[in-house]
Design a protein that fits this description.
With about 350 residues, this protein is of the alpha+beta class. The strands form two sheets. The protein has a six-stranded antiparallel barrel. A four-stranded antiparallel sheet has the order 5-4-2-7, with no helix packed on it. It is rod-shaped, with a radius of gyration of 43 Å.
Amino acid sequence: MKRLLLVVVLLAVAAGGTLYWRRAHERPADAHRLVLHGNIDLREVRLAFRLVERVREVRVEEGDRVRPGELLARLDDEAERARVAEAEARLEAARQRLARLEAGSRPEEIARGRAELAEARAQARAAQDTLHRLRRLRAKKLVSPEDVENARALAAAAAARVRAAQAALRLLEEGPRKEDIAAARAEVAAREAALRLARKQLAETRLLAPVAGIVRRRLLEPGDMASPQVPALTLARVNPVWARVYVPEPLLGRVVPGLRAEIVTDSAPDHPYPGWVGYVSPTAEFTPKNVETPELRTRLVYETRVFACNPDGGLRLGMPVTVRLRLDRPPARQTPACGDD
């Protein structure tokens, strides 16, 4: 019985000492200062690959600090590199076809077309001369009618070859049609888009940090199969963080975004973090049970987020803190910019 009484007395002394210590480290309240209690909260980023492929490497461990753009993990990229090489080759072939069309016919091709036209004309003249000669002989009945008909057919064929050679030379001299050049240019544009897509797919094999933060969870390991539905890492944004507190309705009109504040932790009461009010909920709610002010438990309050820069990482997720709002100072026009850790 005495031992139980002694334990009760020690617990009472400890509770009283804790209460005294908290009150000793809190500044006295006045009409220009509001003291609230809450917990630190922060944002988490669930990082996943956009491709379905096997994980080759994970470069970070849980608890590592990372900077924006830092390589965190990568997939097996052999297939994506092959697709990029294929797209580059197809693009080069399309560019060469376009260059050939835009350059038009070469002088040697035009010269060959003119020579073919001259040859066709010579053959046509010879065929026509043969036809005239056979007609004269036919008038003297020295050749058969079939010989004259054959000569007439050969002359007509030679004349057709002349017309074909003339058309071919005209096409060589005029060059490719504008429609063919436009189609070749469209093909080049399509091949360029395909190459950009292939390169983007190759870049998707590398998982980069979008913001500065701390790796909270490492969910995939080398050899695992990654997919967009399976996060590989969880990244916690530690700068800025915010304290989630609740403002009573009578003081709501004095708590506005931009209002200056201080955040104090139990582990470092002499090291307050400068902060500012960043968000005030537009709807009321009943006081949560974890708020430590008993006189406010049955009243309506408004959730408020007090942001603060966290350069040393001293403000951690879930940490209980004390928030002091300076009601006597005007709100800041611009909120501070926290640098990347």
